[in-house]
Amino acid sequence: MPKPSKREDLLASALETFHTRGFHGTGIKEIADAAGAPKGSFYNHFSSKEECAIEALRLYGAERRMDMLADTTSPPLERVRRHFEFLRDEVVDRDFTRGCMFGNFATDVIDHSEEIRTAVADSLRTWNSAIAAALEEARRDGAVRADLDPDVTARFLVNAWEGTLIEARATKSAAAFDTFFLMAFEAALR
User: Fold this and answer.
1) I need a surface site. Which of 1, 104, 116, 178 has the fewest CB within 10 A?
2) Contact call for residues 162 and 103 (beta carbons, < 8 A)
3) Is the pLDDT of residue 190 over 90?
4) Residue 13 to residue 70: CA distance in whole angstroms
5) Number of neighbours of residue 156 by Cβ within 10 angstroms
6) In whole angstroms, what is the distance from residue 64 CA to residue 81 CA?
């Protein structure tokens, strides 16, 4: 297997460091040190910390398993539920120490960087669209009410999820997830 490029190493360490420490808590030196690279090599691959953060957001989005939302080998509501279960399990496995990087950046950075605000908004749009497509399929199949608006419902689910993460991290408890799954799948998507 070919060795990853130093850019890939820097990007992987940036994702990990930004997700762990946040944008403002992360320095270029920390990213470079975690990648085993000299600080100066960072600028061979990224023009700024902001550019690196946007690339890290894209990588983070690619790891959110949105592909499972489009996997037509299982019913659409089951896919949506499994997607959120995957995200929940990731948070629990990390002992509630990280939230969603989209949400973290949205509350930490977007008022100070138009480029990061745009990247976060694009990421959320992509996520909403993937959920909405599964909900549209569920509506066509009769698995949800015929008057359910897939786009509005997808945005509601993502927004509810982000709030759920805040409570789960604050309480270091999975109880917030229980409430999310109950309200999302037994009430909103019934």
Assistant:
1) 1
2) yes
3) no
4) 29
5) 16
6) 14
Residue 87: alpha-carbon gap to chain centroid: 8
d(CA 168, CA 172): 5
* Contact (Cβ atoms closer than 8 angstroms) between residue 164 and residue 177: yes
Please answer whether residues 29 and 39 qualify as being in contact, where contact means their C-beta atoms are separated by less than 8 angstroms.
yes
* Listed residue (30, 3, 5, 37) closest to 15, CA to CA: 30
Give the Cα separation of 113 and 132 in Å (integer): 28
Residue 3 in this model has a pLDDT that exceeds 60: no
Domains of the chain and any CATH numbers: 6-58 (1.10.10.60), 64-188 (1.10.357.10)
Check whether 2 has a pLDDT greater than 70: no
